[in-house]
Amino acid sequence: MRIGFFARVAAQSKFETVEFYHQDIQILRDLGHELVLATSWREIPRHVDLYFIWWWQWAFLPMVKKVGCGTPILVTGVFDFLGPASYHARPFWQRLILRHALRHATANVFVCKCEHDGVVRALPVKNPFYIPLGVDSHVYAPIDIPRENFVMTVAWLHHANAQRKCIAEVIRAVPLIGLTIPRCALLSQAKRLLGTQRSTRWLVNSECAMRSNLPAS
After folding, report:
1. Which class is 2-130 in CATH?
2. Which of 2, 51, 139, 151 reaches 20 to 30 Å from 173, CA-CA?
3. Which pTM does this prediction carry?
């Protein structure tokens, strides 16, 4: 199958350095498909068997180009249904573009359940699917070296992203780790201080420091 893989990024080099693009491309190639990579209108091919698109806000470009061809379209990514830069905070014309993509894609693939459920409840969606992101167990595997006494998470802690990345669940798991690693600390590297970051810090203190006598950073 010949697949047009499209993401509106600065350069095709991003397909090698951004892991979620790179992994999708590698999987499709391993399955025996021919891929035509595109980052702009000019690069989007017309004669393909399928369009694989990252991000709903840019799906209209391949959709316009495939008019009259009947080519199926799969769209995936993070929809940003909630939060400061959410669907609801966008201008009306941008919401129209997003809704058009949801209605006219052959399949809409969400990578987290809270977004899948929220979007499907609120908006008309054609063929929605929930396929969570996975971890390569060959790369991220236990090794026989001494462990340091901390759990580290890196995530933007605005409300929707913290929910999507299961930050509360990570925090609540630290006391369980503390049963085998005494004085285990939670280290969180966040993008910027927001109200939800303050509430997350409160949760860290209450769950880890107070309930289990574990340090929180």
Report:
1. alpha beta
2. 139
3. 0.76
